[in-house]
């Protein structure tokens, strides 16, 4: 299927889908449910990806490496919990480094529990990889409220780091293969690939800085409304922090008052900052019926899993002590399967602006009368 630079669905739609998937992984951390979330993410990324950088595979691979490192560290530092598989030479670190023992007994329950927890990390990175493969970062930034424009710009640039780096890596490998005539020369290959990637990243950063400077980014001084919204946001954060401290001190009434005050101040600050300097958007896309369908099914999926968690469904979490096989309940399973609804929708590519302009020009040229 040909890929398009314009996604089929709105960036807000994919953001709602990704947030629902992330919360579901937190609520249903059992390996069976995590497998369903990861499978739904793979289907969505394969059906609606807008680039061929392979961000989903890269992030899942990175998650697997992180999970294996976590399993090794946990197994080497956790002892006297379950059945001993084998014993390794042990060493006790100095008190300055924690004073715990590394090595010794490797226990089955510890390994299995850390594998299950690491698998949830793989699923979270898989959801982020699928989101990165299908969303338009430019549209995501344009959909953010004016109060979050600066923070949204930073987050958008960070989210676009993975596909841009993968593209640079692929280009460096193809250039190296072209220089060697298609012959794989492993000696010095890592240096020949890493250096162009770093150089490309530096050039991209400089171009981005020049582009932001030419557009006058952060050149206008803050106005009275911006200052008021900043102070309101600061007071809101202080109120929310005070609410957390009061909650720890078991002052529930004071915590509720501070939390409500902080929420009101935060909403007022966002509204004030958005109205102070309204931002014009170039050709914004409206949500379609399919966008609303994906958002509704994502919300329904999260609702079903949350209902199961509130009802005390024991299969949502899994523990290796005592060791038992993970179970699968119908209600949360159906909810998680709803995350794969976007993969069932039509996957025809949306034409980008360049192809649309070319088609319009061809039609206009065809419609002109031929001079005799």
Task: Give the number of DSSP strands.
Answer: 2
**What's the Cα radius of gyration?**
26 Å
Helical content stands at: 55-70%
H/I helix tally: 14
Number of folding domains? 1
Question: Explain this structure to me?
Answer:
With 372 residues, the protein is mainly α. It has one domain. The chain is built from 14 helices and 2 strands, in the order H-H-H-E-E-H-H-H-H-H-H-H-H-H-H-H. It has helices at 11-27, 31-48, 55-77, 108-134, 137-142, 149-159, 161-179, 189-214, 224-248, 252-276, 289-310, 330-337, 341-344, 353-367, and strands at residues 84-92, 101-107. The chain has a two-stranded antiparallel ribbon. A hairpin with an 8-residue loop joins strand 1 (84-92) and strand 2. Helix 1 packs antiparallel against helix 4, helix 2 (31-48) packs parallel to helix 12 (330-337) and helix 3 (55-77) runs antiparallel to helix 4. The relative contact order is 0.16. Residues 350-372 have low confidence and may be disordered.
Helices and strands, with pairings:
Layout: H1 11-27, H2 31-48, H3 55-77, E1 84-92, E2 101-107, H4 108-134, H5 137-142, H6 149-159, H7 161-179, H8 189-214, H9 224-248, H10 252-276, H11 289-310, H12 330-337, H13 341-344, H14 353-367
Antiparallel strand pairs: 1-2
What structural keywords apply?
two-stranded antiparallel sheet, 66% helix, mainly alpha, disordered C terminus, 372 residues, 14 helices
Offer a quick outline of the entry:
The protein is mainly alpha-helical. Helices cover 66% and strands 4% of the residues.
């Amino acid at each position: 299927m040909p890929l398009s630079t314009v996604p089929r669905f709105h960036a807000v739609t994919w953001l709602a889908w990704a947030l629902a998937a992330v919360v579901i992984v937190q609520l249903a951390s059992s390996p069976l449910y995590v497998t369903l979330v990861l499978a739904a993410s793979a289907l969505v990324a394969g059906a609606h990806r807008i680039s061929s950088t392979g961000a989903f595979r890269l992030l899942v691979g990175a998650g697997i490496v992180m999970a294996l490192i976590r399993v090794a560290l946990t197994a080497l530092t956790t002892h006297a919990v379950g059945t001993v598989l084998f014993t390794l030479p042990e060493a006790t670190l100095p008190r300055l480094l924690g004073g715990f023992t590394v090595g010794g007994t490797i226990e089955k329950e510890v390994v299995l529990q850390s594998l299950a927890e690491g698998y949830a990390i793989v699923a979270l990175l898989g959801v982020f990889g699928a989101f990165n493969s299908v969303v338009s970062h430019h549209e995501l930034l344009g959909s953010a409220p004016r109060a979050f424009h600066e923070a949204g710009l930073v987050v958008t640039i960070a989210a676009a780091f993975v596909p841009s780096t993968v593209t640079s890596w692929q280009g460096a490998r193809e250039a190296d293969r072209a220089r060697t005539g298609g012959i794989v020369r492993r000696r010095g290959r890592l240096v020949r690939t890493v250096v162009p990637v770093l150089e490309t990243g530096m050039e991209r950063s400089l171009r981005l800085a020049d582009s932001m400077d030419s557009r006058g980014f952060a050149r206008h001084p803050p106005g009275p409304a911006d200052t008021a919204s900043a102070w309101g946001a600061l007071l809101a954060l202080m109120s929310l922090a005070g609410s957390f401290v009061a909650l720890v001190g078991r002052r529930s009434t004071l915590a509720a008052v501070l939390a409500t005050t902080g929420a009101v101040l935060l909403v007022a600050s966002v509204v004030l900052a958005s109205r102070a300097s309204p931002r014009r958007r170039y050709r914004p896309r409206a949500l379609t019926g399919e966008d609303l369908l994906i958002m509704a099914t994502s919300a329904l999926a999260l609702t079903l899993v949350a209902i199961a968690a509130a009802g005390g469904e024991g299969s949502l979490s899994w523990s290796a002590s005592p060791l038992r096989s993970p179970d699968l309940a119908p209600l949360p399973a159906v909810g998680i399967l709803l995350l794969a609804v976007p993969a069932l929708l039509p996957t025809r590519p949306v034409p980008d602006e360049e192809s649309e302009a070319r088609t319009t020009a061809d039609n206009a040229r065809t419609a002109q009368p031929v001079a005799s």
